[in-house]
Amino acid sequence: MKKILLSLLAWLFFLTSPAVQAEWKVIDVTEDAAYFVDDFFEPGRIVMIWQLVDYKVPNKFGNLSAKILWEVDCVHSQMRSLRFSSHPFRMGIGEALTMDKSTGAWETPAEDTPQEAIFVLACGFEPQLGPKT
Fold first, then answer.
1. Angle at 38 between CA 50 and CA 81, to 5 degrees
2. How big is the CA angle at 91 (ends 88 and 106), to the nearest 5 degrees?
3. Lowest CB count within 10 Å: 11, 22, 70, 97, which one?
4. Sign of CA dihedral 74, 40, 121, 133
5. What is the pTM of this model?
C-alpha cells in the first residue's frame, strides 16, 4: 500500500511540474539555436515567462538546452532573468547540469533579439516604442 501511495504521489508531482505542462512556442531561430517561450503566462504589468533555448550543437559547456525564467516589466519596458538552468538534452530534458537562481539586472531588451520577442509577446508592444495610449 505504501509503495502504491508513493507511486501515485510521484506521478502527481511529475504531471504537475512546470516542465511537463509547458507549451513551448517558437519565437526565433538563429544559426546557433531555436528560442521558445511557454505561452502559458498571466498577462499584466509584471509578467513571468519561461524561455527555452535549444542549441543546434552542444555549447562550449556541452549543454544542448537552457531554460530561463524572465520577469518582464511592461510599465518600464524592462526585463531581467530570475532563474537559469542548463540541460544535457534538447528541449530542456534531463536533470539540470547548472542552475542559477540569482536575479539579473533590469535591462531594456535589444532590438531584433529573442528577448525583444519575449517582451512583445508578454506586453503587446515593442519596448523602444512604449505602450500605446
1. 10
2. 95
3. 11
4. negative
5. 0.78
Amino acid at 128: Q
C-alpha cell at 118: 519575449
Q: How does DSSP assign 25-77, residue by residue?
A: EEEEE-SSEEEEEE-----SSEEEEEEEEEESS--TTS-SEEEEEEEEETTTT
On the 0-12 / 13-18 / 19+ scale of CB atoms within 10 A, 75 is exposed
- For 92-104, write each residue's pLDDT tens digit: 999 999 999 999 9
The residue ranges of every structural domain in the chain are 22-123
Query: Going edge to edge, which strands form the sheet with 78-87?
Result: 24-29, 33-38, 46-55, 65-73, 78-87, 98-100
d(CA 103, CA 110): 19
Closest CA to 116 of 70, 83, 64: 70
